[in-house]
Amino acid sequence: MNEPALNGMALTRQDRSEPLLRSGNSNCGGCGMSNLMQMLRRASAEHELKMVVPACCAAVTSGGFPESAFSIPTIMSTFASAASVATGIAAVAQLNEEKTRVICLAGDGGTYDIGMGTLSAAAERNEDILYLCYDNEIYGNTGGQRSSATPAGAATTSTLHGKQETKKDIIGIMAAHRIPYAATISLAHIDDTLRKLEFALVSKGFRFLHILSPCPTGWKSEPAMGIELVRLAVRSGLFPVFEVFDGERYQINVEPDFSGEALTMYLALQRRFRNTGVTEESLRPSIERYWNYLRLMSGRIVPARRN
Amino acid sequence: MSVELISANHAAALAATLAGRANRSARGFCSGVYPITPSTECMEFLCGQEIEKGKVVRADSEHNAMGICIGASAAGARSFTTTCSNGLAYMVENCVAAAGYRLPIVMSVANRTLGPPWNIWADHGDSLLLRDLGWLQLYSADNQEVFDTVLCAFRLAEDPRILMPVLCCMDGFILSHTMAQVEIPTQEQIDRFLPPATIPQRLDKAAHTLGQMETPHQSVVHRSQHHQAMLGARQVYSEIQDSFTEIFGRRPADPLVSYRAEDAETLIVSMGTLGVTAERVVDQLRDQGQAVGSVRVRMFRPLPDTELRQLFGGKKRIAVLDRDISIGFGGALWGEVRNFADRDSIVQGYMIGVGGGDVRPEHLLNLLAELEQSEESAAPKIVEVA
Q1: pTM for the full predicted model
Q2: Which are the contacts of A266, defined by CB distance < 8 A and separation ≥ 6?
Q3: What is the CATH topology of the domain spanning A18-298?
């Protein structure tokens, strides 16, 4: 496991002088999106940013007019329009030869579901956008209903006894668009996260980052356990950390140990998995299937390292 | 100035192209477009143009075409798109957003019936979907007017006192696909008429957030500002008319186009190309000694209420023609203008040409003959035309 020694990050001179997400924002304690914005603060220190936020928790967290918790120019788009509004902004930046990096900060609902067509179209046109999907696996803003990012076996307010269907393979979908860069991000792996954010910020064309974003409110978990939960999801193989270049070259970034104990703990620490019948054994086949696929795509038949 | 034989769709697209080029010294031009009959030729024309510091993005839906315009406009560029019918219905959510951000986006609509059942012919029901959403609405009756209206629309939309999107409507096929002579100014003239666009709320260096949450009190204030700004459009438009006249040597049409209306006893009120038919009928009846006049409502939002009240004063009979139907109510235009008439005037609503029916002079003659016999206003009537 190439995990960093520290969970948190210290503020350094390398960071943007002002946080991207300022204090006074209304995120729940332990929100993964807050962690993401913290890391993006460091990764984007050298960049001028403009941001598009569709309907999602990030649209609420900035607070009420006229104050904003975001320290960069931001537009709140309609739910399904993040990637199209960003298209317009990026096009005008290009016409004016500006170095502005345009980012979308969208939840899983606005990405996997209602914004899917918009996302696919912007990816197909290879717009110069960095799309960040912070995935808490539910419609968090509306109180925690299922989305197509909700994993099978998770109880939500619209699937009380656990969702039946499996989670959509978003990176597979994005890779199929042959975009320059698509990657998953584990908030528990800071070095890998920073490297990916920095790479994605300097790259051109459509870049997509999928962030597993702990949601204590929806997952019914301890706010302080968020990073730990991500670490368990990565260790168990449930959340593979990898990147795909040009839709072809797959690179696995973190080699899990496929620990059964980690998977059991991951489930046990979240009340959304309680009484839905989901267990380590029930998840194991789909994890193996996905990893076989990843091994095939990455050309690494044998794991590089196994602890 | 040159004269070209072009369709109204092309006239709208050409006006947008010239307006786009005129912003090359500022933030440029960016447009998201998507095809739909009968607006398609407008977007096709735009896609074929070379626009310095301009980009036309071929979107995946009308919803996202407007999304791209929103992004472009929020980044300070001039922006334009076109759609109609179900495309406009699909776009509505982002039209609401464009108005809410107060972005000066101009849109050309070749009015078409909403479906299903599918029908591609002219009906104003599509643009009327946006009636209450904070867009200015202008309806044209010939190709020159379409061209002039789109140019004026950019001036209107971008005026710091207005700052809101503008809808330029033309009847689908009747205008959109009809070729006619259009006077086209030079780029140099257009540059003089359309100064570089300044969008004060654009995303620039300052860390402000567009479209974020607000309290009921703040919403009331924002709506009120929007409302007041729109009401001011009549004054601003007359200034734009003066400036247009000075630069191009002809005056763009008024918000209300009245024809032999002053001394008329009976008035025909309409929007779009129905007004042209009405004017022909007026001539015919005048020849027979009947005091008939016509008023074409070009500016539907903001509705020129004072002027309408003035024009309606003293009229015995007013026939309001609607190429739309507000189901369960009557014609939308009738519903809005009937209260401007005197108490003892007979105001009769007719929904005619709904779903694209071909309204000919004889239809209007029949309807007026019947109106001349009536002693009081009746419920709005649906007139079937083949």
Answers
A1: 0.96
A2: A229, A232, A233, A236, A238
A3: Rossmann fold (3.40.50)
